[in-house]
Every structure is written in structure tokens, then in C-alpha cells.
Design brief:
With 123 residues, this protein is mostly beta strands. The strands form two sheets. Strands 2, 4, 5, 6, 9, 10 and 11 form a seven-stranded mixed beta sheet that branches. 0% of the residues lie in helices and 50% in strands. 33% of the residues are buried. The chain has strands at 2-6, 9-12, 17-24, 32-38, 45-50, 57-59, 67-72, 77-82, 91-98, 112-113, 117-122. The chain contains no helices and eleven strands.
């Protein structure tokens, strides 16, 4: 699976961004898709995941109610809608794919990774 993330940028606190991640290669529908974030000097942390089929989701507590993960099977694309952004949301955002459960929140357990897209939230 090859993953291409896009949609990052600079936004003021309280603003919104939508990240996209297009998958190619093996069957997109066979994989759980997820988003992670890595701030400077910090470990890569889980944000959200969505399963296929059924669309069950899992979110990090700090983004619940602000971030929404979704996927479009026809476009082989997963999205992360981010609202009410805060300065501590700043980091490089990565999409990932894995045949495992949405409950897998450790980055090292995910199999495939995109290249990352920078999100900067100014105060």
C-alpha cells in the first residue's frame, strides 16, 4: 500500500483544516486507516482510525469532538477533518494503514505509512 497525504498548512487557532490521504496498491478496503501526529521532539501519537467495512472509529481523547475521520472507498481516500484547532495540534501529520483493529494505537504496530504533511496552528 502506498499512501500520499496532503492538506496541511498554516492556520490560526480556532480554524479548520481537512487532510486527505490517497491510497494505492493493494486493496484499500482490506485495511484499517489511521492518522497520527508527531510534534518536534515528541513521539508519534495516535489520533484517529477507521475500519472497513462498517466504518467503526476510534479517537484520541484530546481530539474527540474536534476531529472527524472518514473514508471514501470509491476514491481510495481517507480524510481527517480538523476543527477548533489549537496551537498544541501543531506537528507533522501522517496517515497509516494496517490490517489490524482501530484499537491499535501504537505507531510501531502499523504497517504502512505516508510521507507526512505539516500542520501549524498559530496562536
Amino acid at each position: 500500500v502506498q499512501l500520499q497525504a496532503s492538506g496541511g498548512g498554516l492556520v490560526q487557532a480556532g480554524g479548520s483544516l481537512r487532510l486527505s490521504c490517497e491510497a494505492s496498491g493493494r486493496t484499500f478496503r482490506a485495511y484499517t486507516m489511521g492518522w497520527f501526529r508527531q510534534a518536534p521532539g515528541a513521539e508519534r501519537e495516535f489520533l484517529a482510525a477507521i475500519a472497513w467495512p462498517g466504518g467503526s472509529t476510534n479517537y484520541r481523547d484530546s481530539v474527540k469532538g474536534r476531529f472527524t475521520i472518514s473514508r471514501d472507498g470509491a476514491k481510495n481516500t481517507v480524510y481527517l477533518q480538523m476543527n477548533s484547532l489549537r496551537p498544541d495540534d501543531t506537528g507533522v501529520y501522517y496517515c497509516a494503514a494496517d490490517p489490524g483493529s482501530v484499537r491499535h494505537t501504537l505507531a510501531r504496530s502499523w504497517q504502512y505509512w505516508g510521507q507526512g504533511t505539516q500542520v501549524t496552528v498559530s496562536s
